[in-house]
Design goal:
Elements lengths: L1 H4 L4 H14 L5 H14 L8 H11 L4 H7 L8 H16 L11 H20 L7 H17 L1 H60 L1
Helix pairs in contact: 3-4, 3-5, 3-9, 4-5, 6-8, 6-9, 7-8
Length: 213
C-alpha cells in the first residue's frame, strides 16, 4: 500500500521510468498510441481494481499495444485521482440532471467501504442465517458508481484522444532518433573493427618482412 501511494524515488522518478519504458516498446507509434488511448480512457471509469483488465481488453479490440495500455493506467494514481473523480462525477451528475452534493468526494472512501462491507456480509449470509443487506451498495451505485460511469465517458474520451495525438508524433520522432543512434553506433563499431583488422594485417605483413629479412 505504501509503495502504491508513494513509489520508491517518488512519483517523478516513477513517471520518467514509465515514459522511458513506453517509448522503447517494440511496436509502431500508432499501435502504442492506441494502447495509451485505452489505458487513459479506462482510468476515468469507476472500475477500480480492474483497470488493467479492461485496459488490456480495450487495447486488444483497438489493435493497440497491450503493454502500453497497462502502463497508461499510471495516469490514474493517488495524485490525480481527485481531479479524475471530480471531473467524472460532475459530468455524470450534469448528464443525469442531478447535483454533486457538497463534500461528496470526501465521503467516497466511506461509500466504497459500505459497498464492500455489503458484498462481504451478503456473501457470508449465503452460508449462514444472516439476512442480506444491500443498502450500502445501493447508495454507492446511485451516488457514485452510476454517475461516475456515465460522467467518465466524456472527459475520458477527451483526455485519451489528446494523449493519442500527442504521443504519435513524439513516439515517431523518438523511434527515428533511436534508429539513427543505433545506426551510428553500428557504423562506429564497423569502422573500429575494420581499423583493427587493417592494423592486424599491417602487423602481420611487418612480421613477415622481418622473417624474410
Amino acid at each position: 500500500m505504501a509503495e502504491f501511494l508513494w513509489p520508491r524515488g517518488g512519483w517523478t522518478r516513477a513517471f520518467h521510468y514509465v515514459k522511458h519504458r513506453m517509448r522503447r516498446l517494440p511496436d509502431s507509434p500508432e499501435r502504442i498510441a492506441r494502447g495509451i488511448w485505452a489505458g487513459v480512457f479506462v482510468t476515468f471509469t469507476p472500475l477500480f481494481g480492474f483497470h488493467f483488465v479492461f485496459a488490456a481488453l480495450l487495447a486488444r479490440l483497438m489493435k493497440g499495444n497491450i503493454l502500453a495500455s497497462l502502463m497508461a493506467t499510471f495516469v490514474g494514481n493517488p495524485l490525480t485521482f481527485v481531479f479524475i473523480a471530480l471531473a467524472s462525477l460532475k459530468t455524470g451528475h450534469l448528464i443525469l440532471g442531478t447535483e454533486l452534493e457538497e463534500g461528496e468526494l470526501f465521503t467516497l472512501s466511506r461509500k466504497f467501504g459500505d459497498a464492500g462491507s455489503d458484498l462481504w456480509h451478503n456473501f457470508i449470509a449465503i452460508f449462514t442465517q444472516a439476512e442480506m443487506d444491500w443498502s450500502g451498495l445501493a447508495i454507492f451505485s446511485r451516488d457514485v458508481f452510476y454517475p461516475y460511469l456515465i460522467g467518465g465517458i466524456i472527459p475520458g474520451l477527451v483526455c485519451s484522444t489528446i494523449a493519442y495525438y500527442l504521443m504519435v508524433p513524439l513516439l515517431r520522432a523518438y523511434q527515428k532518433r533511436r534508429k539513427g543512434l543505433i545506426k551510428a553506433k553500428f557504423e562506429a563499431l564497423k569502422q573500429k573493427t575494420a581499423e583493427r583488422a587493417e592494423a592486424k594485417r599491417q602487423s602481420d605483413e611487418q612480421q613477415g618482412e622481418r622473417s624474410d629479412g
